[in-house]
Every structure is written in C-alpha cells, then in structure tokens.
C-alpha cells in the first residue's frame, strides 16, 4: 500500500514524486515507456525555447551550455535527477485499469512480459501528458506506414518528396531541417501564414525558404488524400496532387481521455479539459488528482514550465489529508 500512485513519468510526474518524497510520503510512478518519453520523441537536434531554469524540477539546478537547452542536455538532466534523488519509478509498464473501493485505489499495470502488477494506494495522481496521442487529419491513406506523427531527424529523407502538414513550431522546424538534409519539401497549413506565433529563431529561415520557393508552401490548405506515391491537397485554387514519398503530420497532440473517463472524471467535450479544483488539482472523483499538461486538454495553455509546480500543491493537500 502506497500513499500515492502517480501515472506518468514525464517531467510533471517526476516533479510530483519529488514533492511527495520531500514530505516523507510513500509513492510509486508508473510509466509506460522511458522516463520523460515526450522529450525522447523530440527531434534529435532540438533546442528548447524554454530557458533551462524554467525546466528544473525539485529545486535541483539545471545548467545548460547555452540559455536554452538541447534535447540531449534535458534528457541527461532528468536522468540525473531520477538517479540521484532515487525517484521510485517503474518504466515500461502500461496501466490498463484503475479500480476504486472505499479505502483505496488499485492501479493495474502490465509489464513487458505480459504480467499484471497491481499497485494499491490511498490516492492517485494522473500525469499522463498529451504527446502520446497525435491529432488525426482524418483522410484516406493516413494509416499508411509512410505517414508519421513525430519527427526525429532529416538524414534518411535525402532526395525524397516529403510533405509536412502543420504550421506551428514542430512543423516549421521539421520542414527547415528536411530541406537542409536534401529533401524536396512541401509544407501544407490550414492557416494563411506560418510567420506568426513561431520561435523567432525559425522565422528568418522559413520566410527565406518559402519566398525563394526552396520549400513549397500551400497556405489556407488541407490534405484531401494520401496514396503510395502522391498527396492531394485542397488549396484556394483547387485540388493539387503532388509527388510524395513520406508525410509528417505535425498538427498537434491531445490527451487520451479514455482512462480519465473510465473512472468517472468529467471532460469538457470541446476542449478535453478535465474537471478539477485549481487549488488542489483534485478531480471530481475523490482522491484522484491531475498534474501537468493533461490539465490543459487541447488548449495548449499548460506546459512543463507550469505543470512542474502542480505536484507541490497536490503534495500539500495529500499531506493535510493523511495527518
């Protein structure tokens, strides 16, 4: 019996574990893949827009070579924190069911061997994030293996016709990197521009590449269909079919609400924001709390910078109840 089971081993889940640990409460974190797996899935050479101090957890300093850290530096930081603080985390265990009775909650997880492991606790914190569940375009051909929702690096796509769908940082960054690695890049965005709301470090390059037609850009457009060799794009001038070898659909991510709804947590149907007390982060289900990006649904209003502090408030409330 633990005081708390935390579901999700991202930065906000780790921060919650550290907050509980500091108050002397027993806990375990269950993570279905590696620690901070959302960062593992980031591009290999990515440099974060957040400064290193805004990504720290547990009051443990994070010093990067430059003000804004790279993916490699951030992964190393979270590994070191996990190891040195002896965070109690079980990786590669998939939670498939949560059951609740009067006095406790049981989280049922399955490990890589297929063995079911029950974890019993007085309370649980769900810190599952959103990055494991990409938004779908909803067109024919989207389920083909050549369509990907995460971008790592561009070398493998040298000489290939690649379509990038999206207009935010991840899509623009991927389009730039693919072009620099020798791909023939087409960028499709439903908005009329990609020059607003992106990192300043990307703006000069993407504007230059689009204006010089090094990257073909279809604004106010949407993908109509994907085949083995083409992508059909609905543009303001009509339907255009372009040669295609690979597609990166980088239109954003959303929380998987299945687990939340299975235990009765109420979800706003339009934003997927779950019901919770903003002071304690407890949901409408007693003794079930939320931490991190999952609290923002699809609004994109909650990031690591904010979510890393949720665990402190949760730990304070749980400590009060257990006294």
Automatic annotation (TrEMBL):
Pfam family example for this protein? Pyr_redox_3
Q: Which InterPro entries match?
A: Bdr, FAD/NAD-bd_sf, Ferredoxin-NADP_redctase_2
Required cofactors, per record?
FAD
Matches recorded under Gene3D superfamilies: FAD/NAD(P)-binding domain
Q: Which domain of life is it from?
A: Bacteria
Q: Molecular function terms in GO for this entry? A: oxidoreductase activity
Keywords in alphabetical order: Flavoprotein, Oxidoreductase
| UniProt name for this protein | Thioredoxin reductase
